[in-house]
């Protein structure tokens, strides 16, 4: 588990989507982390019933690997322990 960086689509922002900052969000990600791709579109739903599309801001496969390992430090430690 970690923080998934998201970016609004071009021309959208919190104001245009009517978001207040008090919502709870559900992000529809693939079941397997390995299925997430850099720049992939995902659907975001709020507890108030709003739905919109965002772009996953993992820009490289390396960033996805860091996320998959729980962060940069766990990734580096695993790499070092395999040597």
From TrEMBL:
PANTHER family: ACONITASE/IRON-RESPONSIVE ELEMENT FAMILY MEMBER
InterPro entries: Aconitase/3IPM_dehydase_swvl, Aconitase/IRP2
SUPFAM superfamilies the UniProt entry points to: LeuD/IlvD-like (SSF52016)
Protein's recorded name: Aconitate hydratase, cytoplasmic
């Amino acid at each position: 588990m970690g923080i998934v960086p998201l970016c609004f689509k071009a021309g959208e922002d919190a104001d245009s989507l009517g978001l207040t900052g008090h919502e709870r969000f559900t992000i529809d990600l693939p079941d397997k982390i390995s299925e997430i791709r850099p720049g992939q579109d995902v659907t975001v739903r709020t507890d108030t019933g709003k739905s919109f599309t965002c772009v996953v801001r993992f820009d490289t496969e390396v960033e996805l690997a860091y996320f998959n390992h729980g962060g940069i430090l766990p990734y580096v430690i695993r790499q070092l322990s395999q040597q």
